Amino acid sequence: MRQTKTKTPEIIDGSINGLLIAANEGDESVIAELRKRITSPEAQSLVDKYGDMAHQVERALLKNKLPDQEGSQILVAEKLRRMRIELGWHEASAIERILIDRVTLTWLALHFEESTDANARSVPLVLSKHHQFRIDRAQRRHLAAVKMLATVRKMALPLLIDIRANVTVNGTKTTESKSLLGDRFAINNSKN
Length: 192
Hints:
The chain is α+β, with helices and mostly antiparallel strands. The chain is 58% helix and 15% strand.
């Protein structure tokens, strides 16, 4: 069990942020209050910022692979933001958003692996094979994420059902066609 630290006024200021800091520092006395207040509108920005694990992983990858290069981290983060927009993140369903985040993360991981391999100079054959293995695995993960996003989007397309019937009314042959698209019907009557 973690030890409870003493509360200090600068950490426990009554705000969600103060409660979060105190809880992360091991103060168990604030956990119940944090759980109660985390659903409030005040907490929404903290939940979005710290609860989004895809973005946490993105930040960790950028810091790990581009240490001491904050400018490069900003540029790559912007590239990923633009990729999300191009992939339709704002208009996407919840599952599509998860998959779009996965596509951008796997894209980033793949390119970091390729960059590591490209920057390796005079490496032993074993290490070179290891780099290629990691690239291949990253490539498979990326392609699987892209395929899954495409599959989910394909499944979300409206289903078009076309029903045709030959009908004879008072000696006149007609072909009646009904197409169902979502909750709309289009009826087309044509005489032969």
